[in-house]
Structure to design on (520 residues):
C-alpha cells in the first residue's frame, strides 16, 4: 500500500491511484473526513457531513475494483456539493433558514447521481449565500465560509463553501451553481479553477433554483484536468431539466494541453479594462504574456448586459420567493431580504425589456465569436475582500463590494456563454485572483486547449 | 437637487405602497434599505430602458409547446 498523502492529489490523481489499487477509496475518504474534522470548525465550509454514506460508497468502489469491475472515471474521488443540491436524506437548505424546515430530499440531484455512478464519493453539503443571491460567501444563518488563504477574508459566493472546501483540501473538487458568477467568483477569490459551462450543458434537476433564466451548475477544482473530468462524466442531456441542451458532449479530457495553435484569443477592452484594482488587470497581463495574445476586442454594450442581468435577477428571484416574502420575511438573511423585497417592486415592462435586450446582446456575442475564439477578462475586480467589508475603492470611487464582485462574470452568464476561471498569482499580491476565459456557446473545448 | 427632482431617489413612501400591493409585511426598520435597493435597481434599469431595440426584436426565453 502506498504511503502517498491523498490530500495532495487532485481528483484525476486520486482516481488513477484508486483504479490501480495503489490506495483504497476508503483510505482516501478517511483522510478527507479527517481533514474536514480538523479544518471545518475554523473555515465553515460544510453544513452537512455525510460520513456514513461516504464510507459506504468508498467500500463499494473498493469492492468493485477487487471484483474486477470497472470502478469508474471518478473512482474514490471525494467531493461535496453546495447545499442547494438535493442529497437523499438531507434537507436542501439552499443557504436559508426557511427551507431547512422542508422534508429531507427523497433522491439525489441529477449531477450527484452521475458523479456517484462514476465512482465519486460524496462527503457532504456546503455552505452558501442565502438562496444564491450573493457574491461574498457570507450567510447570516450559518456564518461565513472563510477563505483558506486568509480566514479573515471572504471565500466569494454564492458557492462559498465550495470554494473554501476545495481550496483547503477538504475535497479535491466541489459542485456549485452560477447564476451571475457564483462559481467563477469563489474560484477567483480562493485560487481555483471554476467551470460555468454553456447554459443547459449540465443538468440542474434536483437543485434549488434562483433565476431559471440564468441558473447553471458545475465544478470548482484545483486543476483544469478535474474540471474536464467532471464535465466528461456529468455533462449532457437530461429530460428532467427543461433547459437541458439536447446535444452530445464533446469530451474535454483528450483536449487538455493540446495547444492553442490556430485559436484566435483576445483580451477584452473597455468595460473589462476598467472598474477593477490593478491586480485584476495584472493577472490578465500575465495570461496575455503567457499565451502571446496580441489582439483586443470590445464586447458591445457589456455594461447594459450586466444591468439587464441585474434587473432580471432581482425580479425573477423575487417572484420565486414571493410567497415566503409575504409570509415570513423576518426569516430571510437581511442581506438578501431587502433586495428580494425591492425585486418584487420592479415593473414587468422593465423585465421584459431586459429579456429583449438579452436577445439582442446574444446576437452581438455570436457575431463577435465569428472573429475570435476565446475572450480573456478578469474574473473579479479584486482579490478576496475582508469578511463584512461593504465598500471598496476603484478608480477614485467608493463602490459597494457585493454587486461589484460580479462585474465581469455577469455579462456572460446573461447569455449562457461557457467560461472558465483560471487562478493566477500576481507577484507582490498575497491573495490569488482569477482570469476568465469565455467562448462561444458549446465551445468549452477551446477553453481547455491551452490549459494543463 | 431636491429628492423630488431625482426619479431614482430612494422613496420610502413608494416602498410602503408597493409592499402593500405585493402583500409583503414590511418592518419599518427595513424600509430605508429597501428604498435604497429599489433606487439602485431603477438607476440600473434605466440604462437598459434607454437602449433602442427594434420592435421586432424577439423576447426570450422561447416557450416550446409540447416540451415540459
Amino acid at each position: 500500500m502506498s504511503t502517498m498523502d491523498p490530500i495532495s492529489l487532485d481528483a484525476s490523481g486520486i482516481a488513477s491511484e484508486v483504479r490501480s489499487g495503489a490506495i483504497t477509496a476508503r483510505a482516501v475518504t478517511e483522510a478527507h473526513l479527517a481533514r474536514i474534522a480538523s479544518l471545518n470548525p475554523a473555515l465553515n465550509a460544510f453544513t452537512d457531513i455525510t460520513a456514513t454514506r461516504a464510507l459506504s460508497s468508498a467500500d463499494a468502489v473498493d469492492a468493485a475494483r477487487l471484483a474486477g469491475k470497472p470502478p469508474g472515471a471518478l473512482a474514490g474521488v471525494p467531493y461535496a456539493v453546495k447545499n442547494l443540491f438535493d442529497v437523499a436524506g438531507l434537507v436542501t437548505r439552499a443557504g436559508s433558514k426557511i427551507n431547512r424546515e422542508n422534508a429531507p430530499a427523497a433522491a439525489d440531484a441529477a449531477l450527484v447521481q452521475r458523479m456517484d455512478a462514476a465512482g465519486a464519493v460524496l462527503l457532504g453539503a456546503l455552505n452558501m449565500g442565502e438562496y444564491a443571491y450573493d457574491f461574498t460567501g457570507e450567510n447570516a444563518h450559518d456564518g461565513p465560509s472563510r477563505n483558506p488563504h486568509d480566514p479573515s477574508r471572504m471565500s466569494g459566493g454564492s458557492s462559498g463553501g465550495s470554494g473554501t472546501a476545495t481550496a483547503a483540501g477538504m475535497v479535491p473538487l466541489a459542485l456549485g451553481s452560477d447564476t451571475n458568477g457564483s462559481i467563477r467568483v469563489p474560484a477567483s477569490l480562493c485560487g481555483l479553477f471554476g467551470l460555468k459551462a454553456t447554459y443547459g450543458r449540465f443538468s440542474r434537476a434536483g437543485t434549488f433554483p434562483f433565476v431559471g433564466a440564468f441558473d447553471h451548475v458545475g465544478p470548482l477544482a484545483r486543476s483544469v484536468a478535474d474540471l474536464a473530468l467532471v464535465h466528461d462524466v456529468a455533462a449532457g442531456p437530461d429530460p428532467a431539466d427543461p433547459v437541458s441542451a439536447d446535444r452530445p458532449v464533446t469530451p474535454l479530457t483528450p483536449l487538455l494541453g493540446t495547444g492553442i495553435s490556430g485559436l484566435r484569443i483576445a483580451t477584452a477592452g473597455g468595460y473589462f479594462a476598467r472598474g477593477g484594482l490593478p491586480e485584476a488587470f495584472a493577472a490578465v497581463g500575465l495570461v496575455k504574456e503567457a499565451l502571446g495574445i496580441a489582439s483586443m476586442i470590445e464586447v458591445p454594450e457589456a455594461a447594459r448586459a450586466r444591468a439587464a442581468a441585474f434587473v432580471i435577477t432581482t425580479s425573477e428571484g423575487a417572484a420565486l420567493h414571493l410567497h415566503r416574502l409575504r409570509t415570513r420575511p423576518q426569516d430571510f438573511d437581511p442581506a438578501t431580504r431587502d433586495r428580494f423585497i425591492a425585486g418584487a417592486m420592479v415593473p414587468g415592462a422593465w423585465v421584459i425589456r431586459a429579456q429583449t435586450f438579452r436577445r439582442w446582446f446574444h446576437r452581438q456575442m455570436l457575431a463577435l465569436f465569428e472573429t475570435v475564439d476565446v475572450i480573456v477578462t478578469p474574473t473579479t475586480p479584486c482579490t478576496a475582500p475582508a469578511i463584512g467589508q461593504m465598500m471598496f475603492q476603484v478608480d477614485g470611487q467608493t463602490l459597494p463590494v457585493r454587486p461589484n464582485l460580479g462585474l465581469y462574470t455577469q455579462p456572460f452568464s446573461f447569455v449562457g456563454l461557457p467560461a472558465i476561471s483560471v487562478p493566477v498569482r500576481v507577484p507582490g499580491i498575497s491573495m490569488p485572483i482569477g482570469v476568465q476565459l469565455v467562448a462561444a456557446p458549446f465551445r468549452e473545448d477551446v477553453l481547455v486547449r491551452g490549459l494543463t | 437637487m431636491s429628492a423630488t427632482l431625482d426619479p431614482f431617489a430612494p422613496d420610502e413612501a413608494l416602498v410602503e405602497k408597493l409592499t402593500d400591493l405585493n402583500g409583503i409585511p414590511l418592518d419599518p426598520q427595513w424600509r430605508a434599505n429597501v428604498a435604497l435597493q429599489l433606487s439602485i435597481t431603477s438607476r440600473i434599469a434605466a440604462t437598459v430602458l434607454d437602449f433602442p431595440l427594434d420592435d421586432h426584436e424577439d423576447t426570450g426565453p422561447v416557450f416550446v409547446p409540447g416540451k415540459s
Observations:
- Chain B touches chain A at residues 14-15, 18-19, 22-27, 30, 33-34, 36-38, 41, 44-45, 47-49, 51, 53, 57-61, 67-68 (CB under 8 Å).
- The radius of gyration of chain B is 17 Å.
- Chain B has a mean pLDDT of 89.
